[in-house]
Amino acid sequence: MNELEWLACEIPEMLVREYRVEPSARKQQLLAIACCRRISHRLTAWPIAARVLDVAERFAEGTASEEEMTAELPAFLEERNRAVRNLGRANPLEPLRYLFSSLESSRYLFPELVGGEFSGAPKSVRRVVAKKERREEFRAQSALLRDIFGSPFRSIVFAPEWRTDTVVLLSRGMYESRDFSAMPILADALQEAGCDNEDVLNHCRDVAQVHVRGCWVLDHILGKQ
Q: Which residue from 15, 39, 65, 87 could staple onto 91, CB 3.0 to 4.6 Å apart?
């Protein structure tokens, strides 16, 4: 697959194969969370879902302990098993299993998850949505993957002088609020700081590009892996 084919591809599993170095556990977890958040409207009947998404995100960022994550597991298992009985394997809680996959204590409960964190959650989310919605889900998940991992065909060297106070402040504000509407403003601030990298600037200015926590540009700015 060449770069143009990769950019046009709408199958996340095919995009993943082009990465020669496996992304960090944090980024894999954030992709799983972003995919699960796309079906959050289907999870309102289960309060455990919001708690799991919150603690899983904090765990990925290093601000929640493994003990906090593990503490949610019994309640999640109870609700997930109830959902399986009522709705089968395509119930909306099923994809959230993957958020526990990095915990040693949960591996005996979900042995099928071991080694499959990268693409497991996106696939599981697609099983939840109606068939007529799956093409859009493929497209959306591919966009999320590109936002979080960036292109395997481009190596970005982020100059320290681009991290001005304004650039860092804008980036941190968007990251903490999960409101990424200021990405075009960030592009202007980066350009003023001397950034001339078209990949960075275009990613910020692309109105069609979705942004989530883990966005590769913000990670470069904020020093996250």
A: 87
